[in-house]
Amino acid sequence: DQQVKQNSPSLSVQEGRISILNCDYTNSMFDYFLWYKKYPAEGPTFLISISSIKDKNEDGRFTVFLNKSAKHLSLHIVPSQPGDSAVYFCAALSDNNDMRFGAGTRLTVKP
Amino acid sequence: KAGVTQTPRYLIKTRGQQVTLSCSPISGHRSVSWYQQTPGQGLQFLFEYFSETQRNKGNFPGRFSGRQFSNSRSEMNVSTLELGDSALYLCASRPGTGYYGYTFGSGTRLTVV
Predict the structure, then answer these.
(1) How many CB atoms lie within 10 A of CB B33?
(2) Nearest chain A residue (CA) to B41
(3) From the candidates B7, B43, B45, which should be mutated to test the interface with A, based on the most A CB atoms within 10 A?
(4) Nearest in space to A103 (alpha carbons), one of A15, A24, A12
(5) Distance between CA atoms of residues A74 and A95, nearest Å
(6) If chain A, 111 residues long, is cut into consecutive pieces of 10 residues, what is the mean pLDDT of each piece?
(7) Cross-chain residue pair B44–A101, CB shorter than 8 Å
(8) Taking CB atoms and an 8 Å cutoff, what residues of chain B touch A89?
(9) Which residues pair with A49 in a beta bridge?
């Protein structure tokens, strides 16, 4: 059962523009959300997270927005840089604490 | 401090064989989770161990099993390998059972032929 969904397998943006990656979830028990970035042949690395009591969390060029009523979150990267090219995974946690991931979105930032 | 170490990095097995993968967590981390990554499926949760006990289990057949030792190192075993088991197997450790601090290893790439 795919409780966390990333419906766009890929996204291509121009350097300097905004990248918006989207994620939807179905389990209303999820109360903590994370974004991970993954390069080939490496494990995912933590990028940014948000608790369900917030609707926005910002860290430098990265901002995560959470819309609980829509069960939707998004990651904004502004401005996008070629080094941001990677696969981005959305993940969600609930009180029973196992982390569920989406299928990932491959972001390509073109110079 | 050393990160999460997974061995081996690459493995080729034939159908019907069994395989054991190893994960050494960050020192002091007591929780170890295992994930399977396949193209288009993202990271699928296999199981999580905390203090040598399985806390959670994903939706995988019984051919997939794991264990955790007293030093928090973990192994996962897949018996009667199938071609569809070819994947990148990732392990993540965290200090306890809170939300924070998941750190992933680089994974073991398993190819079943």
Answers:
(1) 28
(2) A103
(3) B43
(4) A24
(5) 22
(6) 89 98 94 93 91 95 97 98 96 82 95 93
(7) yes
(8) 42-43
(9) A34
